[in-house]
Amino acid sequence: MSAESSVSPSRVGVWLIGARGSVATTAVTGCAAVTAGLHPPTGMVTETPAFADCGLPPLSSLVFGGHDMVDCPLPKRAEALAAGGVLPPGLPAAVTAELAAADREIRLGGPLSGETRDEDELVEALASDIRDFTNRCGLDRTVVVNVASTEPVPTGAQLPASSLYAAAALRAGCPYVNFTPSMGLHHPALASAASASGLPYAGRDGKTGQTLLRSVLGPMFAQRALAVRAWSGTNLLGGGDGAALADPGAAAAKNAGKERVLADTLGGVPEGETHIDDVPSLGDWKTAWDHIAFDGFLGTRMVLQTTWQGCDSSLAAPLILDLARLVARAHETGLSGPLSELGFYFKDPVGEGPAALGEQYAELVGFAGRLRGAGAGAGAGAGTGSGGPLRGVGDPQLPSGERLGSSDDRAASSGERVASSGERRGLSGERR
């Protein structure tokens, strides 16, 4: 049963940060394939009966564009993914027109190596790309989604690339989704701008594999009053994500979300660590092992071991489509601020909410009910070329504007690691 609504004929932009990466390419290809009836919407939660008649934009209404630092065309990226078994054979050729159309809407991101523009100039350039896309394509609204490479945790006064893109989304008047562990809109310098923007936003760090399983197993141990003594894990992955996470700082940012799930569901972090190993030959495929030691009645020590083998891009892509539709609909109804009800999709969700997957799903279904009962609100028409506002209410002023907070706000906590100048280069599309 399709959840697409016949009520909302709007065209919705999906602006992908990291638009030529594996996740983005799979999302664009998959959207075209499902729209054409070539494949079912497997993995898309918004295509289940619980989301029927919610006013979500149809998949056929989504228009893709984005920023990236690489120039390999999307049709070639899709062919490479098909050769690696990520996409079905022959599918890139079947949807090559849609891939080429999306590729024409991809612009060079930033910061570039040797960048001479200051932060405000760069944010304005990125925001201008998004506004031009929205106007040129005649879109009712555009949702900006970060699916780029994971950044190390930054400190200091300079905004990392992910936060510059987030600021650009606000300045362009667009809702924002951070599917990565990178700072993005979480940076303290953007807090007041996000609050004043009147825009909805969601994130961060998509939950697709090992942490998805942990969010189910953690509550099980807690509910059965079994004492977890140790929880250790290992991730083996390749591709661009494996290369990015070979950086200890990026790996630390990724692992923080995994540990948060355990802390929130178990009431504390047990012994053990999670290790991430780059294995280039694995390509887009990942293996995750967990070893869980726990005590039962009378202190009897027992062990549960799990193995998760999956394709990250195929797991993430349907969630990107879900989130773009949900956030677009939230914007249409006039919702603003952190969408904590979308915590179902994330390791480190914004706002307050449960950590257990079952409880998160219940909140998501409740959110669908809210959307079902809502009409078009204050967000209707925002970001269009037909009179709607093109700049966010908060319109963050960089680098020294009041809405971005004080210099103290811009300095991250003393426990965070300082990013090197090389880490501030633009985000590429290899992710997860």
TrEMBL record:
One of its GO terms (molecular function) is inositol-3-phosphate synthase activity. Pfam families: Inos-1-P_synth, NAD_binding_5. Residues 378-391 have a biased composition (Gly residues). Residues 422-432 have a biased composition (Basic and acidic residues). InterPro entries: Myo-inos-1-P_Synthase, Myo-inos-1-P_Synthase_GAPDH, NAD(P)-bd_dom_sf. Gene3D superfamilies: Dihydrodipicolinate Reductase, domain 2, NAD(P)-binding Rossmann-like Domain. Residues 378-432 are annotated as: Disordered. GO terms for biological process: inositol biosynthetic process; phospholipid biosynthetic process. Signal peptide: none annotated. Residues 209-313 form the Myo-inositol-1-phosphate synthase GAPDH-like domain. This is Inositol-3-phosphate synthase. It comes from Streptomyces liliifuscus.
